[in-house]
From TrEMBL:
Gene designation per UniProt: ezrA
Transmembrane segments: 6-27
Protein name: Septation ring formation regulator EzrA
Entry membrane topology: Single-pass membrane protein
Top-level taxon of the source organism: Bacteria
UniProt-annotated location(s): Cell membrane
Organism, scientific name: Latilactobacillus graminis DSM 20719
Biological classification of the source: Bacteria, Bacillati, Bacillota, Bacilli, Lactobacillales
Family: Belongs to the EzrA family.
Amino acid sequence: MFYILIGIVVVALIGYLGVVFYQRYFVRQIKQLEAHKGDLMALPIPERLTKLRSLHLTGESLQNFERWQKQYEQLTNHNFSTIESYLFEAETANHKYNFIQVARILKQLRAYLTETDQDLLDVQDALENLLANEADTRQKIQQLRDQYQQLRKRLLTKSFSFGPALDALEATLGRLEIDFDQANALTTAGDHLGAKVILQKLIAETTQLEDQMKRIPKRYNELANEFPEQLVEINDTYQQMLNDDYQFDDRQIEVKQQHLMDQLDKSTALLSDLDIGSVEANNDEIANGIDRLYDQLEAEMTAKQNVTTQLPIIAKFVQHAEGQNHELLLELDHLNQSYALTHDELATTKQLQKQIGAEKVLIEGHQAKIAKHEAVYTAIAEDLAGIETRLTAVEKQQQAIHDQVANLHQGEVVANENLHQFELELRNLKRTVEKVNLPGLQKKYLDFFFVVSDEIQKLNHDLNQIKINLDEIAKQLILVQEDLDELRAETETLIDSAMLTEQLLQYANRYRTDFPAIQAACVSAQTIFNQEYDYAKAVDLLATALEKVDPGAYTQVEKTYYEQKSDSTR
């Protein structure tokens, strides 16, 4: 019983301690949330509202201010009282130990505080932005006014550098002054948002004005000083060149100068309208036009110097080409009496003579124009370059023709030497065959021998003509050489076959008694040798028969023959 009482007391004590713990825990939570409420109420929003009221806002700025002020009043009148109600309910429930209800109320309160916190921060940020806009607008207006004053000062002190653009620039300054007054009026009235709109316009206009004032002096200096001075210089130079008897193919120089003057007037008009982009583009065209006129005049002066130097040289070049062509024609006429000129050398050289004559006429024409002070030197210089190029080509053709015919006589000498060599070799071949004392020669061999002989006789006949065609003779030389080489090879084969036949017959004598086939082969071979004159066939017949009774016999006889032949020719 005693232990039961002790257990009851312990349980009661633990329950009491738990109630005390939770009650104190929630008291701390309630105080923290109450402190959060105090932080929200301590936000400096009322000070911002007071400061903004003192600015006497108007227009859109006032509308924004009133909207945020109304929202703040709603938050303070409604939200704070709602928060207080939550806190009271939580404290009451906590005193009654209704901890579940306390937890629910505190959860709702935290969510509500978070929402209120964000709404108050939005109000604070908006009010601070209104204050910042006011300060920023005033500061930027002052900065722009300082920039404006500097531009006005520059325009007054350097008005001479803006030329016809001065009036338009001053008008722009006047418009800026009006915009500044309007911005100041809106700012003073408290309509800072309205002033900010005007401020953006002022920034764009001031930036544009500053850019124009940077770009105009350079372009006006071009129009007022550089271009006129250059055009005067060009005109003076042009007139002096005319006085010095210069001529120009392009008779539009005066027109071009007038066109450039008109473009100067156009740029001046564009400048007075502050159309700087068009002025710059037009001035660039003027500059390019002036450069082209300078180049044209300079080219004519340079061309005169070149023509003065080159014309005598090219004239001598023509004379040299003419004399060289005359000598070449004489040489060709002489050679044409003895040789057939098969590459149109004479016709080509006569055509070159006409071409040289045409170049000579051009040179004389240029010399006449210079003498009459009618020369356009750039045209003459270009023409001289062409003449020089064509004469160089003529000279190369003359040299090629000369080289082509220079060796005609030497070619005739070489051809006669080859002819003599061919005749000698043919006679040697004939004597060689005769020395072998063959019983006869086949018709095929004799026909080919006489063909080669006829070719040599024709070559001799053509070389003894009054007018020789060396191209045709060169072809004959090649043909005769090829046929003679073939005849030499056939002759050597014929003699070798005849000699081998005789040696094979001698070798076969040792077998004729014992071998009837050898006897028959020898009889047939002698018949072929003495009657048909087919010595190669006789060799084949004997070699075949001997190989059957004495393998390797033919190879041994052949080897011995060629060794003896080689020794005899050393």
